[in-house]
Amino acid sequence: MTTPAIPEPVASLIERVNAHDEHGFLDAFAAGGAVDDWGRIFIGRDAISAWSAKEFIGSHGTLTVEEVDVVGSTVTIVGDWRSNHANGRSKFIFDVDGDRLAKMTIREG
To answer: What is the pLDDT of residues 37-46, one digit of tens each?
Structure first.
């Protein structure tokens, strides 16, 4: 089975995450961008950075993509998330705004 291509800017974001590139990860978000991590909402670069330093990039997370679905400007990725903070099959829903991300939502995959 072949996984469909991941569109930009999501493909680059996943590369940045897997490389543990905090600045590249943060730069992927539009001004006022947000992360919804299982109902906890982090809005803006400073809030996303504080969350990520502990639970995402800072926990040396990596995502192995297993499924890709694209509907309009929404890209859904399901894959195996591994980190020092949490592990398991996860769903990442990306709301794309041009060449940046408006929102990344994380849920159980």
So the answer is: 999 999 999 9
